[in-house]
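Progress report, Aim 2. The chain analyzed during this reporting quarter is listed below.
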Amino acid sequence: MSTLKFKEIQKMSNGDRDKKLKELKIELIKSKANASKNKSSKIKEMKKIIARILTLKK
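Predicted structure tokens for the chain:
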């Protein structure tokens, strides 16, 4: 998973943002279920991307 910057998210259409948001939420749930210490940085990054998308939805 690559890091999505705020400018990249701004360039996405609303439909693409919603799709990406759903994908990230599902992936976050799966990562939390596995709860490996190695994935803690991945979980943190997913949360940040979700927050960026939700910020733009306001």
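The chain has a mean pLDDT of 87. Residues 14-34 form the longest helix (21 residues). These observations will guide the mutagenesis work planned for the next reporting period.
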